[in-house]
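Hey team,

Filing this mostly as a record. A colleague (T.K.) asked me to run one chain through the structure pipeline before their review meeting, and I want the input and output archived in the tracker in case anyone asks later how it was produced. No errors, nothing strange. Just documentation.

Input sequence:
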Amino acid sequence: QVDLAESGGGLVQAGGSLRLSCAASGRTFTNDNMGWFRQSPGGTREFVAGLRWHTGSTHSAESAKGRFTISRDKAKNTVYLQMNSLQPEDTAAYYCAADPGGIMSSIRKPDAYDYWGRGTQVTVSS
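Output structure:
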């Protein structure tokens, strides 16, 4: 049983920062793709940033580039999303996901991921 537990969400003013964490249990990541996605009410699940666990290489959505950074701590089996310069349009539920058979071409695709956390809410006020 794989469990991904996000934390670190909350309410922040525009221009502020948050760091989201995704702690995994039940699985030791090896060649997985790890992803952060977000979803607003009535919207679709949107790719934010992804990371290749083995190499540490990262990929970000255009909306996240220069503001958000994904990283991992192998010893803690944890993935992070550092979010700076937050704006009201960043308001959403943020989800962590893992794709054990991850390949580069699928890192941005929600349907490729097998395991999902329950999400953490990020609200940015103007």
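Quick notes for T.K.: The mean pLDDT is 95. The longest strand covers residues 18-25.
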